[in-house]
Amino acid sequence: MNRSCAVSELLAEYGALIDAAKFDEWLALFADECRYEVVPRENFDRGLPAALILCDNRAMLEDRIRALREANKYNIHTDRHIIGLPRICDGGLRFEAPFVVYQTDQEGETRLFATGLYRDRVEVVGHRLKIRDKLILLDSFAVPSLLANPL
Amino acid sequence: MNRSCAVSELLAEYGALIDAAKFDEWLALFADECRYEVVPRENFDRGLPAALILCDNRAMLEDRIRALREANKYNIHTDRHIIGLPRICDGGLRFEAPFVVYQTDQEGETRLFATGLYRDRVEVVGHRLKIRDKLILLDSFAVPSLLANPL
Amino acid sequence: MNRSCAVSELLAEYGALIDAAKFDEWLALFADECRYEVVPRENFDRGLPAALILCDNRAMLEDRIRALREANKYNIHTDRHIIGLPRICDGGLRFEAPFVVYQTDQEGETRLFATGLYRDRVEVVGHRLKIRDKLILLDSFAVPSLLANPL
């Protein structure tokens, strides 16, 4: 598999696993040392470091998923990620891709939840790409409800 | 063409042909023996077999398209499918891909129509992939208007 | 890089550069002789030639970008393009791809802005694809605000 296909496959898995609520498999997409950060693009463009979410090691990310499972029983919804064509640099070890997430609630109403841009740095582990850094630039600072599920 | 490109191409054609209302060419994407099924994901996840639409052979699918042409003259709209990056398994003979469909009515208003996940099984016919089974998992059981056009 | 990957990469860059407001780099995606046209699909399907925007040479396109920079200071927003899987013909020198654009305003509200279809003709310049003709078929004739940024 060439690097471009590997990147597309990783992104496809990333979105599909969140949407299927398979969070352990989603965690397995990350490298042992990893970082997951959600920042409004407005802050990022101005060089303001405040993140909405920052997990700068794997334990924090695992903890977040555990909290999601055990604590967040309200605001029940399902996600749907549509991830656009990726733009690949650095021989495939860095890439960015735009995304939109829709959420569907228990009444069956589907709403636009968030749009933004993924900026990933990956590393090759065995024959797989693993996510080393995931920076999620959100187009809006005003996300319309809780950031429970990962983006 | 490698299998991953062939899958992307098939999905791109699938959406484009519906959006262009080229339903005969759309039908030609299916194998002689085929199945087309639309199920709310909620039902599917609970193992409930009730489908919103089930065409379990090609004649049913052709019939549906004929009905669409001859009977559905109201609710005139155009579709736009955005299909996300596919996740490929089984050497490219099975894949899934998230999708969103927008509809634009005659007043020029564009609305989110549906989001969901395609799960396809394909077979190789000559040098083309043909759809053997198409399972469409809809995120909402409450589709906001008639399911006239195929998803 | 095969032609299919090159097309995907070009489309990804196209959307990313608009969304990042890097309009000079966006201009550099076009060939020296080029055409950029926005037409409601309804007009196009009926053979009506009226375009919402027509730049039939590069100077016009550059002029449009200059106007955008100098004059359009109101209606401040950011764009997010999600471009679907491309459908490639003619050995990769022509392709089409569906798109959706979201806009986020200064209050942080993200709205669906437009959906449609790109139809591109490209040429090979050095080892890059450059856009020769870009036809943008908009699903709605009623775009909800000014067509300031390129689509």
Oligomer: homotrimer
The succession of helices and strands of chain A, N to C, reads HHEHEHEEEEE
Number of strands of chain A: 7
Strand proportion of chain A: 35-45%
Mean pLDDT value of chain A = 90
Secondary-structure arrangement, i.e. CATH architecture of chain A: Roll
- Shape estimate of chain A: globular
Q: What can you tell me about this protein's structure?
A:
The structure is a homotrimer of 151-residue chains. Chain A is α+β, with helices and mostly antiparallel strands. Helices cover 27% and strands 42% of the residues of chain A. Chain A has one domain (3-138): Nuclear Transport Factor 2, Chain: A. Chain A is built from four helices and seven strands; from the N terminus they run H-H-E-H-E-H-E-E-E-E-E. Chain A is globular. The relative contact order of chain A is 0.23.
Structure at a glance:
3 copies of one chain form a homotrimer. By secondary structure, chain A is an alpha+beta fold.
